[in-house]
Amino acid sequence: MKPENNHGLKRIFRATGFSMQGLRLAWVHEAAFRQELMLAIIMLPIALLVDITTVERLFLILTLFIVLIVELLNSAIEAVVDRIGHEIHPLSGQAKDVASAAVFMSLALCGITWAVILTSRYL
């Protein structure tokens, strides 16, 4: 049953609570999210400390967030597919593979961005 429609600040607080619950669930149940979050926690101070322009710094930080966002979406897709059923079906595999490819592409974007910015500065 769907809860009553909330408006204003109450809706914002409830939505924030659901978001925090989603982050907690991803941390507890998704090893890839934990790994990527730990990597982001390590890389964020580097992005803040290196001698680069503000725009370059923003790109480094944005790509870290993009990886985490795409991983959360991948985890959500996998959960929905698993909820529907565990039997092998080509469309279930396709959905999971495409979501995984999105994570791969976000990681590639992050790696390329970091490599280009840091090598252009320091090599």
From TrEMBL:
It is an enzyme of class 2 (transferase). Its EC number is 2.7.1.107. A divalent metal cation binds at residues 30, 78. Keywords: ATP-binding, Cell inner membrane, Cell membrane, Kinase, Lipid biosynthesis, Lipid metabolism, Magnesium, Membrane, Metal-binding, Nucleotide-binding, Phospholipid biosynthesis, Phospholipid metabolism, Transferase, Transmembrane, Transmembrane helix. Its cofactor is Mg(2+). GO terms for molecular function: ATP binding; ATP-dependent diacylglycerol kinase activity; metal ion binding. The chain crosses the membrane at residues 37-53, 59-77, 98-117. It catalyses: a 1,2-diacyl-sn-glycerol + ATP = a 1,2-diacyl-sn-glycero-3-phosphate + ADP + H(+). The active site is at residue 71. PROSITE patterns: DAGK_PROKAR. GO terms for biological process: phosphatidic acid biosynthetic process. ATP binds at residues 11, 30, 78, 87-89, 96-97. It is a multi-pass membrane protein. The keyword Transmembrane helix applies. Belongs to the bacterial diacylglycerol kinase family. Catalyzes the ATP-dependent phosphorylation of sn-l,2-diacylglycerol (DAG) to phosphatidic acid. Involved in the recycling of diacylglycerol produced as a by-product during membrane-derived oligosaccharide (MDO) biosynthesis. This is Diacylglycerol kinase. It comes from Shewanella sediminis (strain HAW-EB3).
